[in-house]
Design brief:
Among the domains are: 82 residues, Arginyl tRNA synthetase N-terminal domain (Gyrase A, domain 2, 2-Layer Sandwich); 254 residues, Rossmann fold (3-Layer(aba) Sandwich). Helix content is 52%, strand content 11%. The longest helix has 24 residues. The protein has 21 helices and 13 strands. Helix 7 packs across helix 8 and helix 17 packs antiparallel against helix 21. The chain binds one RNA strand of 78 nucleotides through helix 6, strand 8, helix 12, helix 13 and helix 14.
Amino acid sequence: MDPLEKFEHQVRDAVKIAFERLGTDVPFDIEVPSTGIADFAVPCFPLAKVLRKAPPIIAEDAAAKLPPMDLVSRSWAERGYLNFQVDDRQLSMATLGAIFDMKSNYGRGKVSGTRVLLEHTSVNPTGPIHVGRARNPIIGDTLARCMRAYGYDVTTEYYVNDVGKQVVLLTWGLENIPADKLSPVDRDKADHRLVVYYQRANRMMEDDPEVARQVGHMLRRFEDGDKEVMAKVRRTAKLMLEGIIESLASINVVIDQFTWESGFIEDGSARTVVERLTRSEHCGQDQGACYLELKPFGIHGKETRFFFTRADGTTLYTTRDMAYHLDKFSRADRTINILGEDQKLGQAQLAIALRLLGQERVPECVFYSFVSLPEGRMSTRKGTVVYLDDLIEEAEERALEEVRKRRTDLPGDRMLEIARAIGRGAVRYNIVRVQPEKPLVFKWEDALNFEGNSAPFVQYAHARACSIQRKAGAARGEIDPSVLTNEYELKLIRVLARYPSVVRESGEKQRIQALPAYGHEVAAAFNQFYTYVPVLKGEESREARLALVDATRIVLANVLTTLGLSAPEEM
RNA sequence: GCACACGUGGCCUAGCCUGGAUAUGGCGGCAGCCUCCUAAGCUGCAAGCCGAGGGUUCGAAUCCCUCCGUGUGCGCCA
């Protein structure tokens, strides 16, 4: 339930009537002025041509022809715009009414029943997640939450890459490298314990042709479908995955399902894709390897051929990915992939190939730019990586310092709990607040920012609201919103009223960065209210103000939850 | 070379899809605010040819074209 809806409808109806009285029925826009000059505005410029009059005159004329509106307190013409200010009392009642009716559901859209399969993360199980890759689960999980809030039936999925040289190499390393030849493990966690084998195996393969031969042999057995090798590799991937899942859990990312790449080899569906593609008129062969010529489909570059088998007939990653997408289409109405920008060409090729298979559906993709370090690109080999686990640990430690400074009264475990909420939240918030397609340079000072536009800023406002409520004691009876008349109260109410439209923006249009921005706006409006308007000593306004605090608390909690952040009751 | 993205005060960023009033916030800087609900807060000040140039339009940060800069891709890798 959107409290602003009925106001906008009334404005629209009234403007339609006014324009008709001026002799036109051209469609018009209603906008929300960014300057805050009015609640709604209708630009009259497009009518100038039709009515052969200057826009300011049209606005004046139309303003004079507006029918009476009970939800609007003021309407006026200004610089070619028709402006409207909604009635404060009506708005307060509608907004607080909607929030108290819906509580934790305030802002949610209608349940649509549309099944969405959202694939995200899907990092190769060869090492711990580093902050470059961490953009993926954070964007994916936040988008999933936003879409659920808007009413979609969302399932998240991780596509586990347990096929190919990387995991085979890691598996070889686990079997053949004695523990005493390894560099020390920096963290007692499955992925960190295993990655040293991967790094070591990589070096050994480069230096020693015999190792390369052994790994090559293992890979061939794997691709021939050797059950023993496949099971071994899968076990390795599973082990690594445990560590990755643990890291994800620490930033509140939970994945609903895991699909294993090797499954598409086992069940023959990758093979079926090959057979069907081979029948395409665009299919060609180069020394036994099959490809599609994609030049006619707008693919540019040095290589326009899209290979889907090797010379020995075995399938490639993209072939299996096609089988995976056909499987996804059978399970959901919409499929969304969160991918790094390096996947763009691959996805374009995939989309064309799927169409050649007769598929009308194509996956929707959200691409994000890479996170780099000030000194350049992250690379596991060069050791220029920051692991997500290290970032989280650092964030929590920094947060704990801050909590200790402020709250000497709390027991240690409570401090730790709050520090966790803050540290982890700060990490997520700082990733989602910028558009995915913008490049991101990782800087500790930004990632650990606890003030201004940050998660702790929003969480702090929530904690303040809770604190007032704790001190207020028993709940009130009926409240009269018409006593909420000062500028801080009204500003806050106007912000709270917009939440449903922000959920629509982030969930339907997939612009998740709108949500943290809105959270900041609510918190800022509340902090101003908090500074200048006494609540507990609010005398005859006390009950109404307590209701406003409660409404704000509900909205802040809803925003935080949808962002995957916790809403601490004290900080 | 070709393709795709990004370029907004010293730094980071919203707005771009769907053109409209004075371009959104934050960090940093400067100056203030705690006998009163948690100062992770609040107030004020300084700081912008919205990468450059052209076009479309009554009107362009927003749409189109060219150029410059940065990133990414163009494997019988995954």
